[in-house]
């Protein structure tokens, strides 16, 4: 058992708050209102959350949307852990369970860093001929962009730091922090 004054292990690295709970809540509300207005005439929007990092953002955003929608998940993992591999290559590890042909689709990402993941997903999904396909990301790191990929709804631009909290992890830790923090490298 931890004694007084001792740090729990999960906060052993220094964290500094970049975006607090109130700012996240306000921005998520604005995005939900904007998306709801844009899709007001659509029968059913398909939200595709990119696991794992988007799960909290998707939960909050979807509950504040006023248009009918369905929720799907997709998961990708990045190649590039071995030197020989293309650092921008992305692999699909979990696909959506329903056909998106002819549907209005909005991809919900946690963070766009180099842009390779979102570019891959937009290519993959557009080949399935949805009626419309747009993207929404909570965070973007503009200084890290390597590919040009359209982001239709954006929460926040941040500098080139590793962020955790609000669904985002470092080695599977910190996902449930209510705010977005920069982690000291
Ligand atoms: P991209 O393909 O745009 O370079 O990378 C996107 C993915 O990298 C994100 O979905 C996320 O998994 C991971 N990523 C990039 N930057 C960060 C960060 O600052 N924090 C966390 N937790 N994940 C990040």
Write up this protein.
It is a single chain. The protein is an alpha/beta fold. The protein has a single domain, classed as Rossmann fold (3-Layer(aba) Sandwich), CATH 3.40.50.2020. The protein contains three helices and nine strands. It has a six-stranded mixed β-sheet with strand order 4-3-2-5-6-7, with helices on both faces. Helix 1 (21-38) crosses helix 2. The two termini are 28 Å apart. The mean pLDDT is 91. Guanosine-5'-monophosphate (5GP) binds at residues 53, 110-117, 162-164, 168-169.
Low-confidence stretches: none
Could you tell me the mean pLDDT? 91
- Total tally of structural domains: 1
**Strand content of the residues, in percent?**
25-35%
Ends distance: 28 Å
Order of helices and strands: EHEHEEEHEEEE
Describe the strand arrangement of the main beta sheet, using strand numbers: 4-3-2-5-6-7
Q: What is the CATH C level class, in words?
A: Alpha Beta
Helix content: 10-25%
Q: Which ligands appear in the coordinates?
A: guanosine-5'-monophosphate
The major β-sheet equals:
6 strands, mixed
Class derived from helix and strand content: alpha/beta
Shape: globular
DSSP strand count:
9
Q: Architecture, CATH level 2?
A: 3-Layer(aba) Sandwich
Q: Given the structure, what is the number of helices?
A: 3
What is the CATH fold-level name? Rossmann fold
CA radius of gyration: 17 Å
